[in-house]
């Protein structure tokens, strides 16, 4: 007997070892199934049909990207605009409110920002702000602030307008990395996120919906201190008309737009249309709906995305087609592993080694392309980062799906 003492699955893997290159062995399934596509961004390894290749995905933006807190991986942002016309905080572009002192720094934080030290002269509302703009009522705005703790160890952000009824008065404040909602009148604040970027840098993000339109106003930032001389270091600000924030968009005097990322690759022999298994490892970079990938052909599409409610979903043929959701929900800014296997009789889905869900139904998708974070899955689609992907030209078992996603 070959490989005595090993289980059947282990024997299959061992037999594969005699024909599969050593570098490909870590990517096999638990029973020795060989992937026809491997994208491993942390390792910088890419393979098609068992042959190592240069990165095969066209239209890709690759990390790391420190300003957005992203490591190695394929960056996928939706189409967005930064409404702050001078995104980088400088003495020339931003103005003071109250007896606030400013000192221009030359840090080159994240390779982008010089830094502006903002010093209170005795009131916690003392602040600086970028050029003012107009904000509409009853639409979501995603706000992002890049900063570092100064001598106060704190930060306060304020939006105020006495011209509205009710008065618009919003304040978020707290220790660096632990900012919370302080006051909110005439506005609804949600999805507050305190992200640590490393090196003492912080990224504050939240979503704001105003009850009344606010004209010629901006969200100002200060050290949240009543002690004269205490400071905070402010780097940049971004405001997007969207339900979730995306990656940084620099501006220098006017609103700037970024097109949606469109990264993908043709099937080219590695993609089987009758059955298959796709494994994705990704980071979900915001709350709400986040598209991850689409396998498509001339007349069909198989989509992978997180729903507004937090479940990972596989959907064939749109809202009226075959749908399968993960048993568990996933949180914002979490790393997930999801594997979907399908054949002519249905689909099996596993999230992070958990319960495998199944759905039966006729499936005969003619697939010939893989794209990442396809725009249009939902109106509020948010950003993601793909860390790794594998495709197996067969439907793997539930046990294999669980092993792949741990």
Briefly say what this structure is.
With 406 residues, the protein is mainly beta.
CATH topology of the largest domain: Jelly Rolls
Question: What's the pLDDT, averaged over the residues?
Answer: 90
Alpha-carbon distance between the termini? 31 Å
What structural class results from the helix and strand content? Answer: mainly beta
Helix content estimate: under 10%
Number of strands: 32
Q: Using the coordinates above, name the CATH class of the largest domain.
A: Mainly Beta
Fraction of residues in β-strands: 35-45%
User: Can you tell me the number of structural domains?
Assistant: 2
Provide the gyration radius in Å: 24 Å
Overall shape: it is elongated
Low-confidence stretches: 1-8
Q: With helices defined by DSSP (H or I, 4 residues minimum), what is the helix count? A: 2
Largest sheet: 10 strands, antiparallel
CATH architecture of the largest domain: Sandwich
